[in-house]
């Protein structure tokens, strides 16, 4: 009797879905957060041939054995850009990622443009990852601003200066990027190689977005949709749990039969 095994696989799948939706909802106010989405597939293990005369002789039907966890994807739909007071808060209007170097030397990519100047004058993100290519901003720089094409400008001793150029990176298949924590992503074979260019330029077959200063991209989690999905998952979980209970009762009845 496959009932309990099939229902148990459904419970496991719905638990994963519930955890994923819960994590999305918990990050609804996290700047630059991209919602995760699950991909499940039906497990087929047996072919059954029907004796029903309305089907052609030898007609076989696949019997499902439950559900399997296929993959986890990221929804890279752009979130809203919210205005801030920090001139180094940068939002990307369109496609592309900022490029940073982590302390272990790994190059990672992010949509979160909450930048600052560290003690050595380098432009970094909030975790201390250095923006690439490296940009130095003097400690006495004033009136900082960032143009649409990524130029960081400011005033030092009354003289206007250009401190550096923000570059963006595009990928042929962003959905193939692998998450590495803190809203950072690393490339994989599925994402393709990084394609670096200035904001607003064309790299490969895509146009990179432009930079909007004093703005931060918000989470792209739709709270209403997530709450609806969560209710559907909870009902599916309850249904599968009930199937396990019914299967247990059926086994109990079978065990109590006497000849």
Mean pLDDT: 88
Structural class of the helices, strands and pairings?
alpha+beta
Main sheet summary: 5 strands, antiparallel
Which residue ranges are poorly predicted, with pLDDT under 50 across at least 5 consecutive positions? none
Helix percentage range: 10-25%
Walk me through the topology:
Elements: H1 3-26, E1 36-49, E2 60-74, E3 81-83, E4 90-93, E5 97-101, E6 107-110, E7 115-117, E8 123-125, E9 130-131, E10 142-146, E11 151-156, E12 159-165, E13 168-170, E14 178-181, E15 184-186, E16 195-197, E17 202-203, E18 206-207, E19 210-213, E20 215-217, H2 223-255
Antiparallel strand pairs: 1-2, 3-20, 4-19, 5-6, 5-9, 5-13, 7-8, 10-11, 11-12, 13-16, 14-15, 17-18
Write up this protein.
The chain is of the alpha+beta class and about 260 residues long. It has 2 domains: about 5-75 and about 245-255, no CATH class; about 80-215, no CATH class. Helices cover about 20% and strands about 35% of the residues. It is built from 2 helices and 20 strands. The protein has helices at about 5-25, 225-255, and strands spanning about 35-50, 60-75, 80-85, 90-95, 95-100, 105-110, 115, 125, 130, 140-145, 150-155, 160-165, 170, 180, 185, 195, 200-205, 205, 210-215, 215. The strands form 8 sheets. Strands 5, 6, 9, 13 and 16 form a 5-stranded antiparallel β-sheet that branches. α1 (about 5-25) packs antiparallel against α2 (about 225-255). It is elongated and about 100 Å long. The mean pLDDT is about 90.
